[in-house]
Amino acid sequence: MTQSAKDEVSTDVASNSFEALAELIRSDPANSAKFQRAVSQISNTFGKTVAVDWACKTQLDSTMPLPTILDFVADEMGEDAPRSLFKDILNNASNGLLLPIARFWRFLCEGNHEYQQSRERISSDIRNFVPIYFRFVIPPTQAINLLKPGKIVGQDAERIQISRMHDYLQSELKPDPEWARVIAQSRLPSTEARRRVEQTEGECGWVDRALELGRLSMMDPLSGEVLNASDGIIAYGRCLYRFDGVEPFFMVTGGPWNAPQGLYLSRSRIVLTFGGEWTGRLRGKELANVLAAYLRARAVRAAAPIGERTKFTLYMPPTNNFAHHHWNFQTGLERAIRLRRVDALAAVRYSGTEFFGSVQDLFPELHDVRIERPRRENVVDPAETPSGGLPLPSAGFYIPRSLTDRIVSYMRGRPRPRMDVTEPRDIPRPAGAPLLWLALRVRGRAWVEQEAGFIEIINRIGEAHSDAMFLLDGFSFPVGEDSSSQDWTEAVALLHGLAERIRTASHYPDRVLNLVGNTMRESVLWAAEVSLYLAPYGTTQHKVGWFSSAPGLVYAPPVFTERQLLQSPGFAAAEISTLPRIVFGTPAVATASVGPARVRKPSNADVSLDPQFVAETLAQMLEDSLASRDRLRVAHV
Q1: What is the tens place of the pLDDT at every residue in 104-113?
Q2: I need a surface site. Which of 71, 257, 575, 616 has the fewest CB within 10 A?
Q3: Half-sphere exposure (CA, 13 Å, Cβ side) for 473?
Q4: Are 189 and 571 in contact (CB under 8 A)?
């Protein structure tokens, strides 16, 4: 069979598949997600071009609009796909629905009172097309980096206050002066960590200044005038704030610590970036989604008036990851308390899992602040609760010792959650006895030989140190409300079985404690006492590395570089941390004992490491640590 004949057969097969799916869509529009998954499968089987072509045709033939298909096609083609590819789809499928969106957005950006009357035309059906409008109909015309003014030329160089904006941003994107002194006096694990903390905390300084001044300010890039935000929302963990300048413009944040990424000029459709590492959030789907969230919010209710000085609602978004909850959200609260900015808060609002307990219990300094605990939410709109003022993210990167001490102290005073958990005071140990934390991992970024390796480690170090004790960590349940653990049921079962096999097969099962399935309370208490740890790179390491000054051995897939790891939050974020030693494994095929990866990508690859090498390395690190401790003890005598 010739290549052209093969291509024709593939096209026919794909055609039949899509025709069947098109019929499914016509009968049940709610199956758009199933359709999208099928498109992905056909794309993998027959190639991207065939999949995109038939996705477009199916969209045109469908009697119901399916904006998610347009998103898929754009993702397949890339953000630079020609708009002409979507012209017929939009004209056919939208059936005029884009016109009220365009009118509403124009009135809204102009401050035209007619936008109030046009709100009622943005029905729930039309709202599904709002992200499509921003992404494909009026995407940004260009992006300009304000921190590289020499590259701005032509008409835009004349319109934009380049020099003034550059100087303004240089003064704004840095930590609060008092917080800068705290960082300067802190003990950080490395020079790279200090640079990273200074940079990221500078990107969080805008929140501190807003709380101090009672207003959120930004320079108008067209006039050079410093303006106060007139409106804003937090959508999907990111912030968007409106400023009414020569033309309305929006400041957009991004990344785990909500760093300001740049400005979007609504009429010119120009993006002005601040040159941060998350500037990709100002392109394509990312920008379209946050603008769409704002338009949809204003289609439901008008903006609340913001005065010259206002109080704020500090918001902690929901997450299924304890590390982000601690590293990016609790740090913002700790900083606000230490900078004495609590009086600027009308409320603290958070939803989702309470990994370490409730906000009011952990931060009693907030006793006069209203605590709002809504159901899990993706959009926070100040128009819903005008008394709360503008929402601000509880944003941070640096974990100061004061926050670590706060968490440990709270866990020590908290009652035991269950009678079957074990905490340090339950097991008397000789002073100075080695306590090793061995972190298990399954379903991605796992050490495939960890079962044999951990047994080797326990046997080798257990023989050399008769008082040594070993902790097998894997999964810890939240202390407070829990809305995330149900996703880890299979992983917990794998981890528990793995830990028990290691414990019973070792020569010293009575000195091995299985921590899988305990709570974050016991994990924090044990982590504060360990002598040495072994963990994979990622949140498994953060659980011990952020609550201990002990040395550690961390393994990672080879896709990372040592420089990347040294600047990562696990190695750079916490004041209490000691810089761990790094070993890179070789990519390996997952075994049944570790299960398939939750997300298949190189950074999540399972790795292979020689158990003998790991055991010897860890044993030597323990001897070095004990010798260093003994020398320090002698020096103090």
Answers
A1: 888 888 776 6
A2: 616
A3: 29
A4: yes
pLDDT in tens, 296-328: 898 888 888 877 778 899 999 999 999 999 999
Cα–Cα distance, 533 to 545 (Å, whole number) = 8
Q: How remote is the C-alpha of 175 from its chain's centroid?
A: 21
How far apart (Å, rounded) are the C-alpha atoms in residues 543 and 527?
A: 8
Question: 155-158 long-range CB contacts below 8 Å, 24 or more apart?
Answer: 156/270
* CA–CA gap between residue 34 and residue 36 (Å, rounded): 5
* Cα angle 15, 16, 22; round to 5: 85
Total residue count of the chain as it appears in this document = 637
Query: Angle, to 10 degrees, between the axis of helix 32-46 and the axis of helix 3-27?
Result: 170
Q: Residues 364-383: pLDDT tens digits?
A: 999 999 999 998 888 899 88
Return the percentage of the chain with pLDDT > 70, whole number. 77
Tokens of 594: 């570790």
Count the Cβ atoms, other than its own, within 10 Å of residue 565.
20
Contact 425, 346 (CB under 8 A): no
**Measured on CA atoms in the order 144, 149, 154, 156, is the torsion positive or negative?**
positive
Residue 16 confidence (pLDDT) above 80 = no
Among candidate residues 503, 504, 577, 486, the one with its CA nearest the CA of residue 535:
577
